[in-house]
Amino acid sequence: MSLVHLEIARVRNLSSVRIVPCDRINLIHGQNASGKTSLLEAIHLLSLARSFRTHPIQHVIQRDHASLTVFGRIQGRGGQTTAVGIEKGRDLTRIRINGQTVQKSSALAAVLPVQIINPDIHRILEQGPRYRRQFLDWGVFHVEHTFLPVWQAYHKALRQRNAALRAQSPPAEIRYWDTQLIEHGQQLTALRQNYVAALTPWLTRYCQALLGSAPEVHYQPGWAQDRDFQAALEKGFERDRQQGFTHSGPHRADLVLRQEKMPVQNHFSRGQQKLLASAMRLAQIAQFRDVRDQIPVLLVDDLPAELDPDRRARLLSLLVESGAQLFITATETGLIDTTGCEPVKVFHVEHGAVQEVV
Ligand SMILES: Nc1ncnc2c1ncn2[C@@H]1O[C@H](COP(=O)(O)OP(=O)(O)OP(=O)(O)O)[C@@H](O)[C@H]1O
Q1: ipTM exceeding 0.95?
Q2: pTM given for the model
Q3: Strand 216-220 relative to strand 92-97: parallel, antiparallel, unpaired?
Q4: What is the mean pLDDT of each run of 10 residues along the chain (358 residues)?
Q5: What are the RecF/RecN/SMC N-terminal domain coordinates in residue numbering (predicted)?
Q6: Where in the chain is the domain with CATH 3.40.50.300?
Q7: Binding site for ATP: residue ranges?
Q8: Ligand 1 nearest-atom number relative to CA 41
Q9: Closest residue (by CA) to atom 31 of ligand 1?
Q10: Which CATH superfamily is domain 125-293 in?
């Protein structure tokens, strides 16, 4: 799928932008602080109703304004288009799809799946398991329609159990929530494990191409491997009661990547981490394409950062080969060689104004 029309209002320094991207490669260039990342941020908002940079939306809304808006037209397989729009303010999220107001932001993600590779991408590896769970859950959400209700039911049961633990409720009341936690937790675990199994061959292929070798991939379900979830909850019951929260479960799961028996984050350079994390994104896109017969939009912020010319070229050729509609930013177009990668559109950004270069 591709974004064939984009309008942005009041997103950081982008006061009013209207562009018609092409369905393959869109190069966005401009000096530092011109507004390139803000343009990608606006597309991300249209998909996930949140920024990839900062959590409080007030930082993203243009100073002295109360809300921002992003509107897009998405073309799917077969040429049909969907109009999506989002308005966000401090206490406001208004989403419209084909003229209808929708309540849930997950509806946006279903219409416009977006992936991002940016200079922070090494966080997937370097920082806590939360980032790797988010990575997995993006993929499972898009390829397995049962995922969202299961995820929501699990987290509801978890919230109730944690509230009962904090309130020092009687054990029988806490155990009441265990039944639901176990049922939905096992379903969530199975969905994620199946997803990791499907993703791993793609990840191996992209790691080989970008790094020359592939890490071992292992899904850690969020409790000790020598027992099942029920036994883990039972074993941790007293500790959970003492500390007022649930220590075991899919909310503590992790995706462990090891090379030569060591977690990759312990010995990979920044550039290697960027390549590995990019391989993870490319694997997700390939697996998505396999299952859905569609391709997400891929945002690549500051492609050249951390990469030498050879690795930059290798990554670019895999990004192009993925078939995704690409939005790639760089300070100079000369850093990105798109020879032979037609069609390409180039946009120049200056002080928040975006012009197509013809
Ligand atoms: N809420 C806001 N309102 C207005 N302007 C903002 C706001 N937040 C950030 N800015 C400004 O928006 C400009 C664009 O920032 P952006 O990060 O998009 O630039 P960029 O082109 O990606 O730069 P770089 O190449 O340095 O990464 C910056 O000058 C920044 O100070």
Answers
A1: yes
A2: 0.92
A3: unpaired
A4: 97 98 95 97 95 90 97 92 96 95 90 93 89 94 93 97 96 93 97 97 97 95 93 96 97 95 88 94 96 93 92 94 95 84 92 95
A5: 3-353
A6: 1-113+304-357
A7: 30-37
A8: 18
A9: 33
A10: RecF/RecN/SMC, N-terminal domain (1.20.1050.90)
